[in-house]
Amino acid sequence: MDDSKKLEFFVNAFETKFADYEGECRCGRHFHCTELLTWPPEGEFEAYKPPFDSTGLDYRVHFISFENKTYVIDCECWQERANKIMGFIGTHDTELAEYLNAITNERRREAEKVQIVKILSSQDIRNIENGR
Ligand SMILES: [Zn+2]
Questions:
Q1: What is the reported pLDDT for 3?
Q2: Which of 73, 78, 96, 111 has the fewest CB atoms lying closer than 10 Å?
Q3: How many A from CA of 130 to the centre of ligand 1?
Q4: Three-state SS letters, the chain
């Protein structure tokens, strides 16, 4: 599998599920959708003026989030870190699967300890009262 395919899968997995007409990347770089420059129609409101150094996109600004940090997908600043993460995952996939399975099994054991409270129906209560 080539690196661009891996990057595509990484973005699909970590892309946030929201997009906006403008946004700032964690590195401080600003992006905006060029549709903003024609909306609202002239004369109705003050036209949107992006920061002078903002990068215009033909589409809405999409974000990617990992390690509790959010970036604009069109920014390059996050890609070096993403490459390191993908490299780690790629060279330790068996170990990671073992680790995730162990975590899942532990959570399953903990969930089985939880007592389930049954809400009695009025018929259940009558049956108990009648000794059935
Ligand atoms: Zn950035």
A1: 84
A2: 111
A3: 70
A4: CCHHHHHHHHHHHHEEEEEECEEECCCCCEEEEHHHHHCCCECCECCCCCCCCCEEECCCEEEEEECCEEEECCCCCCHHHHHHHHHHHHHCHHHHHHHHHHHHHHHHHHHHHCCCCCCCCHHHHHHHHCCC
